[in-house]
TrEMBL record:
Active site (UniProt): H247 (proton donor/acceptor), C263 (nucleophile)
Region of interest called Disordered, as start-end residue ranges on this chain: 29-101
Signal peptide: 1-25
Name of the molecule in the record: Peptidoglycan binding domain-containing protein
UniProt-listed GO biological process terms: cell wall organization; peptidoglycan-protein cross-linking; regulation of cell shape
Gene Ontology terms for molecular function: peptidoglycan L,D-transpeptidase activity; transferase activity
CDD domains, sorted: YkuD_like
Ranges of Low complexity composition bias in the record: 67-83
Length: 293
């Protein structure tokens, strides 16, 4: 009986040590998924991180979305009348068909700087062009609902992307994956040129789970990696250090109240692009510090 208790205690200590290390998955081991294996993990059965048991960056509850005040129900009259918001934020739709958010001018400013989502006029007023550009931006970065409203999430994502300095990444010859923890953005460079534009990420959270900084190389890849510590599938897995790697996010990436256990979470389309650009030996440069960690 004493022998069994000792074994159980050692197992518990091992689990605590692993969690404290901030690893999303185990380090690649000989005979494990440490190689470049372009196939689904055995036993996946089509299951992905989004449908598996909730893990380190998963929740059972609905995702946090772009806040939008709920309009009051119109009175049951023969002629439909415009609904009005019960809140203080202006939500009346313009001729462009988009609700107006409280961050309209701020979003316009950042989108004008990015110059990739269509023409915008920085005047704090919603136009048809502004509406189209904001919707396109929201669809690209997975902001829901993508209705063109310039709310806090849209403004925050646009600010971070517009502020990203791609030259801050120490990238030499070949391909380098760059991670700015401060701005929570990721991009890829090849021979000093950007080959994947900055996009959003969500990295390790506070409590000993911060993502490591420094220079690394991709040393393990798998189209769908099973995280044994947290019982969840990690799509488009590319490991670079201590059980940390790039993978498709398994939850709403803009929910800042949660984070990973050190991994670099990216949107599905970005995870696929990083997979296509990467290989065993791809350089990784992680720098900065995630706010609040």
């Amino acid at each position: 009986m004493v022998h069994i208790r000792v074994i159980m205690r050692l197992a518990a200590m091992t689990a605590v040590t692993l969690v404290g290390a901030g690893a999303c998955a185990f380090d690649p081991q000989p005979g494990d998924s440490g190689g470049d294996r372009p196939q689904l993990a055995a036993g996946a059965g089509g299951e992905t991180g989004a449908s598996a048991t909730p893990g380190p960056d998963q929740r059972e509850s609905a995702p946090t979305v772009e806040a939008s005040p709920t309009p009051a129900k119109p009175k049951p009259t023969a002629t439909a009348s415009p609904s009005r918001s019960s809140g203080t934020t202006t939500t009346a739709k313009t001729r462009a068909g988009c609700p107006v958010g409280e961050k309209q001018r701020e979003v316009e400013t950042h989108l004008a700087r990015l110059e990739t989502f269509g023409p915008v006029t920085v005047d704090g007023r919603q136009s048809a062009e502004d509406c189209a550009a904001i919707k396109k931006f929201q669809r690209r970065y997975g902001i829901v609902p993508a209705e063109g409203r310039a709310g806090p999430t849209t403004a925050d994502v646009a600010r971070r992307l517009a502020a990203t300095d791609t030259d801050a990444c120490d990238a030499g010859k070949g391909t380098t994956f760059c991670v700015d923890l401060t701005l929570q953005t990721v991009w890829a460079m090849r021979d000093g040129k950007v080959v994947m534009a900055p996009t959003v990420t969500r990295t390790g959270m506070a409590g000993g789970f911060q993502t490591d900084t420094g220079r690394f190389t991709v040393n393990g890849r798998n189209l769908s990696e099973w995280s044994r510590p947290y019982k969840v599938w990690l799509p488009y897995w590319q490991h670079f250090t201590r059980g940390m790697g790039f993978h498709e996010t398994t939850t709403y990436i803009h929910d800042k109240s949660i984070g990973s256990h050190g991994c670099v979470n990216v949107l599905p389309r970005d995870a696929r692009q990083l997979w296509e650009l990467g290989k065993i030996g791809t350089d990784v440069h992680v720098f900065g510090r995630r706010p609040g960690t």
